[in-house]
Amino acid sequence: MIRRFTGTSTNKVDAKGRVSVPAPYRRVLETLDPEWSEGKQPSVYLFWGDPRAKHLTAYSASAMLEIWKQIDLLPRGSEDRRRLNTLYYKMTYHTTVDDSGRLTLPKELRDRVEITDSAAFNAAGDTFEIMRPEADAPAQNDLDAWLLAQPDTFDPASLLPPLPPASE
Question: N or C: which end of the chain has fewer CB within 10 A?
């Protein structure tokens, strides 16, 4: 059972804003949607709340439910809860992947991240980003520069913390 998004893909966006979701991403969305079953359409939640971001962050149904539960833990009336409610309810668009494997990006969301005729899908583990293909270049350039500055023997996996012991 796959529970993480991996890889990258660029797909055409039609005049109605429909774009094909990469097949591996669709399988993850199905796996992480508690209401999905064969013949149903998996949910996707598109978050656009951060004005600095040049992408939409796509959450699975499970990931969005987890965020909502975390918000519910905050005290009612608190400033943090109010802000997070605005971000993760008001500034999140719910859609589904259709029978053809596409989702529709509303014009206002496409305009916000400057998507026109194609969209890049970039995996981020438990989420993925949807952006104009050129928007990822600065981040990729920064990563490339950082990797090139490391010693030849550098292994990125060396930065990972150890896993906690398995419980019996």
Answer: C
Domain count, the chain: 1
Whole-angstrom distance, CA of residue 104 vs CA of residue 112:
15
CATH at 12: 3.40.1550.20
Alpha-carbon span 57 to 121, nearest angstrom: 10
What's the pLDDT tens digit per position in 78-114?
999 999 999 999 999 999 999 999 999 999 999 999 9
Q: 95 φ, ψ to 5°?
A: -145, 180
Q: In the structure, how many helices (H) and strands (E) does the chain have?
A: 5, 8
Task: Write the burial class of residue 29 (CB in 10 Å: 0-12 exposed, 13-18 middle, 19+ buried).
Answer: buried
* Mean of the per-residue pLDDT values of the chain: 93
Q: CA dihedral defined by 120, 51, 91, 93, rounded to 10 degrees?
A: -10
- For residue 143, being part of any structural domain is answered with yes
Of 57, 60, 33, the closest CA to residue 47 belongs to: 57
Q: Is residue 166 part of a domain?
A: no
